[in-house]
Every structure is written in structure tokens, then in C-alpha cells.
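Title: Prediction job returns without error message
Component: structure pipeline
Severity: low
Priority: P3
Assignee: unassigned

Description:
Job completed but the reporter wants confirmation the result is attached to the right record. Sequence as submitted:
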Amino acid sequence: MPAPVCLVTGVGSDTGTGAEIARRFAVGGYQVAMLARGAKSLKELEQSITGTKAYPCDVANLDKLVSTIAKVKKQLGPPRIVVHNAQRSSRGSLLKLDPEELEKNFRVSTTALLYLARETIPDMLEAGRGSIMVTGNISATRGKAEWGFFASTKASQRILAEAIAREYGPQGIHVAYFIIDAMIDNPLTRPVLAPDKPDDFFAKPNILAEEIFKIAHQNPSAWSFRVELRPSGENW
């Protein structure tokens, strides 16, 4: 039997959360379809992580997203697990930001999730099982000054994920939303944003990936939907 398929969006640098998610599912026995805008970095990851395949795709381009999912199905098979990790954020004053930025954020966070669900759930229903994991942010639960364009689209993403869970959970599709309340430990951001913070202030990408893997494989008698993850040093 061929290995089951996991589709992951937002697979960026080798040290990012998306790459760690792809790595964890590959180690867990999945064929992993990696989607991201950067073709070069994706190809490098494909060469370094056994069991993965690169599919360059900007999920904001909905026609391209649909055709890419179709390509994954043809080459690897229907995804049993989908992890929507693609992110887009715009920070600034509501009076100064271009309103078009809100639309772009919404398309990546929410509309892309809708399309992922529409293109993969029918096969999951036929198989009698499947999982859709969505990596969110604490912004999905509250609005903050200068984060309105990001928070509003993450909140809509959370509500859409819950609607999918309520509609298709009884039919065997497990949907979970991860509220990540943390600055993620990444060599590209940590030295710039928080160079003086101790280790316990940061969330480790590989640990986040491990938790997502665990939730994706929960027994149906005890499914989680809203999962909050934060480092011990986070003030919440």
C-alpha cells in the first residue's frame, strides 16, 4: 500500500514551522506535499527531507491552488491530512494601511482554507477519515492596536475552521485549530525581534510540529478542536 499523503501549506525556510511540520509527517510515514511560494527553498527542502515533494504555489492564487491540489492527487494520491500553515500579516494603523492588505490577508488565511477543504474533504469522506489542521495565532481571539488587519482575518479563519469541524466531524473528518501564543524560535527573526530574551520565551518549531502531529492522530473518542500552545515564559 502506498504511504498516506499529507499536504502542508506555508513551508518556508528549513528552520521554520512549516518545514518542521513537513519533516515530522515524513518521519511519521507520510508522503508530504509541500506548498509555498519560494520554489528554490522548496526544492532544497525536497532534497533534504526524504519523503517530501515540492509544489511551488502561492495559496492566494486560488486557481493555482486548485490546480496544485489536483496535481498532488494525481502524483501522490488524495491527502489524508491537510495542514494549513500559510500566513500573511499586515501591521500598522487602520487609517494608514491600504485596505487591499486586509483582502490579501483574508485570502491567505481564510479563503485558501475554504478551497483546501472543498478540494480535499470529498476524498476524505469517501475514505471515511481525514484531518485538517490549521495553525492560527492568539490574534484570532482578540484585537490589538495596529494588528487589526491580521487579527480580523485570523479570527475569521478560526470561525471557518470551527464551522468545518461541526459540519464534517460527525462524518469522520477531524479539524483542529492551533492558537499559537508565542514568538517562534527562528534564526531569521529571533536576533532581530527579541535578541535578549531567554530560551523559555520562544516556541520551538519542531515541538509545535510534534503537537500538530499528535493532534492529527487523536482517537475519535477524544478529539480536540481548539488547541492553545505557548511557551512557559509567555505572559498570558
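Comment from assignee: result matches the submitted record. The chain has one domain: 5-229.
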